[in-house]
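Step 1: inspect the first sequence and its tokens.
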Amino acid sequence: MGVSLNDRLNKMSSVIDTRNKKIDEMCEEVVRLSHRVNSIEREISSINQTNAEFHESLQGISNVFDGIKEQVDKSENEFQNMKIKLDAMEAKVVHYASKRENEIEELIEKNEELTDQTLDLRCRSMKYNLIFSGIHENVPENTEETLRGFLAEELDIDYDIEFTVVHRFGQKNNKRNRPIVAKFIYQRDLDYVLQCAYKLKGKTFQINRQFPDEIEQARKSLYPIMKELRRKGETVKLVRDILYVNGRPYDPEDSGPAETLKYPQRTPSRYGSSSNKRRRINSTPEKH
């Protein structure tokens, strides 16, 4: 019975030791769990802090984007205002350019009118002028006496024609005789000299009316046309830079003389204008 109690006590003691050992193990496990919980809490705290910082960063980014959007909206408004101003300026520039273009066209037109008027005045100032070419030039010489001798010897004009001025023009050249220009006082004398010019046929002398260079160039371009029309039997007359065919101005766009009065062949404008404005002309050719 005593042995049995000891056995029981030993057994109970063994059980208690086992349980104490389990309790110790459980305590150790609790400690480990506690450490793990603390570690998890620290991780959660860190995550929370990171999350807070992230949210703070997001808020900062949101604020930046809000600022950018505000700047974009402001820039867009400024752009629209600038576009409105530019459109207004463009309209003003177009209006100003159109106005200036009209003014330039008016100035060109006035310049052309002045050019025509000046050319007309120059033609009028040369109306009583004849150019004599091929007359021998003496050095020295009295040019008027030389011309009178030519008129008497070559044209059989035996009376004294009155001149306003007689002189040679152009640079002196020993290899050729400079032309003589003579301004007549009376139209009848000039006409008579021209009537007698047929006596120079086959000789080296020439008598021509004097015209400004612009008119002279236009006349030169009309000479072949005039020659061809005469060959065809047409009645042609060249007055200044206008070619008359059967009494009407020649139209270069037609194969023959113009049926109606159209723009005559004339000196091109020095300004290059393609204006169709018609120059004043006589309805019939002049008698010279």
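Step 2: inspect the second sequence and its tokens, then contrast the two.
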Amino acid sequence: MELLNRTNTITVPCFNLENVLSVIKTHHIDFYSLDVEGGEMTVLESMRDGLKTRRITVDVWSVEYRVWDGHSIIDDKSMEKLNALRRFFSDIGGCQNSGYYGEDCSLQCPPNCQEGYCSIVDGTCLGCRVGYRGPNCDDQCSNKTFGLECQQICGNCKNSEPCHHVNGSCLKGCANGSYGARCEIACPDGRYGYNCQEKCNVNCGVPYRCDRVTGQCEGGCQIGWKGQTCDTQCNEGKFGLDCNLPCGHCLNNVDCHYIDGTCFNGCDSGYQGSFCKEVCNNNTYGPRCSFTCGNCLYLYGEQCHHVTGQCPRECNVGFQGDRCDQASDSISAESTSNNQLLTILYVCITLLILSGFLNVILVIKQLRNSACKEQKSQENLETHADGTCKSSEQVKPSTIYINECDENCAEYQELENISQTQYNQLQ
């Protein structure tokens, strides 16, 4: 760095190559390789006279012509330098007309030689036109290459086809995931497919992020969606993340909600709950679990079938049928007979109760009448005429007659004397 920063100039002696070769007494060179980082034409010009007069002869030349800017080869400047080299060698010897070779310059150079120049000895091209290669430049660029000396790589052409051998364009368009004149640009984030025309789905695990080629979502799909591009709702009886959860028994076998699995229109017969996965319980069955099981014979924890109501085993005594909801015929006849006997018994008991009640009323009435008569007799004897009967509590014990006859007799039967307390109880 210290030397580069100096401002003084250092002068060194220079000699042209012809003078150097003359001093060392060398006039013929088998192979001459010239690469002096851009100064090749200056060196050759210093040898022009010697080469032209044949004081110096060279069998094979190798001259660097490509121009490098520190990052890449500059094609146009490289071509300018190559053409200058061709003109130089054409001037110092060879055929008078460019594009020909041979002893009498009667043979035409191959058509794809760059600028028509070829070796004056064997006709091999000194360089090829863009898109060709080989000694005679008769081979097009292959293996997905194109351009000068077939050094450039094709872009992402459709169906992996080769690009144009000259300009690198894709003849049938770009493959999915790329765009541009040469299909060399990848789709930006959120885009995919042919010429990047498709947009990644919002239902991707990471919204609008997917593979540039296939559109497959990054991070899978959001809950309730499926497919490579997450463009299909869960169906076929599935719901949830990656559509891995089975729906319950929704009414009429319709799909449940693709995200949370709830049944829109209720449950099929025999099921209940928001997800229709719970069978009917509490001794119920059928639509909305609205029917009650029959008279089944159960073991602990059993109940009838949640859909049909059929009993898991036998019926209780006195019942029959698949659901044990029908009374047995023998029990029904016996029950009917028993009901008739009970009816007769109830009627008899009712009649007996009514008869006893009427008899009590008649006894009480007779007792009162007898008491009044006895009281009047005493009042007459004592000359008391207050016009009223004394209360039943003051009546002395007396002989009372009561009608005990049934429908076949009409006589009175004398009762034994009753006490005052017994009389009061009759009242």
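Step 3: confirm your contrast with the notes below.
Residues 384-418 have pLDDT under 50 and may be disordered. Residues 295-332 form one domain.
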